[in-house]
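Annual report, structural modelling task.

Input specification for the zinc ion complex:
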Amino acid sequence: MESYFTVLRMSEVTAISKFACPGCGGEAVWTPAKKALVCPYCGTVSPAELKADGSLIEENDLVSALRSIPDEERGWAAQRKTVRCQSCQAISVFDEKRIAQRCDFCGSSSLLNVDDIQAPIRPGSLLPFKIAETKVREDIRRWYSGHFWARSNLGDKALTDTLHGLYLPYWTFDAHAECPWQAEAGYYYYTRDKDGRQQRHTRWESASGHVSEDFNDVLVPASRGVHESLLSALEPFPTTTDLVPYDPGYLSGWVVEQYQIDLIQSAQSSRDRMDNSLRSTCSRQVPGDTQRGLQISPDYSQQTFKHVLLPVWLLTYTYGSKNYQVAVNGVTGKITGEYPLSWIKISIAIFLTLILLLVFMHYSN
Ligand SMILES: [Zn+2]
Ligand SMILES: [Zn+2]
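The model returned the following structure:
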């Protein structure tokens, strides 16, 4: 069974005394810079407001929903070891017998054992790996050589030695939306001017309508280890069709990144994605030849979210002082990555362009 957590529509305001982290139950710390409670164990950032009398107030549906998840839906259901990287802050979870030397995400060796963490929310489901390591190595080599501006002297070793298969944490949000819209629909009509040329005009009429939409698995990444720009480029994942129920057997031999959530941000970004989708559905309903001033007023209900793990092959290497990542979707094989630029190639290109320009100017005079 996939486990779903219903977002309780509770807008009641709860005064909190011990600042328990909604993600893991550990004691969260008020962080003025973020104006939020930050959990030192699992990284969860939950919204809170500091009152004039020094007390903290929380007001968030997600926070209440997370906090109501019982103990039996927490933990990995297997003995696992947890470390936090001091450099990139990613939290990695792996087989107990394995000894981690370096962070799989940034290569740093400053890893801290996380012992006193309370059990995180257990993933409801996951997508198993479909793309084999040998194919990923080949694909990355081909991808890299296809990028002309990349340095060509990195060598095969740097490019494939640090390839890791990782399960990344995501939240997926479901909701039902009822969305009335208003807009002005434009209808073209034509007249002829005194010279007989055709002129186009627009007649504007107000229009309105209603869209109902069910959102399924709107993805929000909860990874800290993979660079943000790569995460969005890795999508889509076939979550609506291929998810299997969580079983610790799938994780054995793999490293899992434990979620770190910014609750304010993930709820907001799932809502933004739904708003955008509604906006384009409504826009398609506006009659006429053109439109302007589209306004939508969505009302969301039946909101649920779940925690899932998605497979990614990650290559990470340091060049100079910078850390580069290449990520491959473990189901579809889609590649996205960063690479150091070859300044020699770029300089030669600029030089050749200048010469061509000079030659061109010489002959055009
Ligand atoms: Zn926590
Ligand atoms: Zn790291």
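The two ends are 77 Å apart (CA to CA).
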